[in-house]
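Materials and Methods. Structural model of Phosphoglycerate mutase. The 199-residue sequence of Phosphoglycerate mutase from Microvirga vignae was retrieved and submitted for structure prediction as follows.
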Amino acid sequence: MTTTFFLVRHAAHDRVGTVLCGRMPGVTLGDLGKTQARRLAERFANEKVACICTSPLERAVETAEPIATRLGRPLEQSEGIVEIDFGNWSGRSFDDLSDDPRWHAWNSSRSTSRPPEGETMLEAQARVVHAMERLRNLYAERSVILVSHSDVIKAALLYHLGMPIDAYSRFEISPASISALVVGDWGSKVLRMNEVIAA
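The predicted structure was written out as C-alpha cells:
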C-alpha cells in the first residue's frame, strides 16, 4: 500500500529572495505568483488526487486554491506543513541578516543551529514527516498534494532520501515547483524533484 505525494512550493511573492518572511502575516502572491498558481492548477488537472493540503500561510493558500478549484476538491489546512518558525529573524532582509553570526551558523550547520526564538530544521522535519504519515494512513493507494515552503519540502525530501539535514543546500526547490515521491510500508522513493512548469 503506497501513497503518492506531490510536494508543491508556494508560488512567488514580491519578497522572494530579499526578505526572510517566515510566518509573518500578509505575504501574498504577486502577479507572477498568481500566474504560476494557475499553471499549477492546469498541471494537476488530469491527476486523480484524494486530498489537497496547504500550509495556512496566505502565500501557500493562494497557491493551493486554484488547484483545489480546478480539481473540485476541498482544501485542508495543516500546521504540520507550515513554514519553519524563524523567530526573531522573521521579516528581516537577507542583507540585514548577513551581519548576524547566528545566521552564518544556521546556514553552515542546520543540524546544530536554531533561529533565535524559533525552531530547528530537524523539528520542522519531524512535524512534516508526521503530517505525511497521517495522510498516508488516510489515503492509501491514492495521491495527495501538499502546498508548503522550500525548507519544509527540503526537510521532507532529505528524510525520504536518507540524507542528513545539513545537505539541504545540495538541491533547489523553486517557487511553484513540484517534487513527487511514493511512500509505503517498505520505505519511500523520490520520483522527481523541483519540476517547474514552463511559461
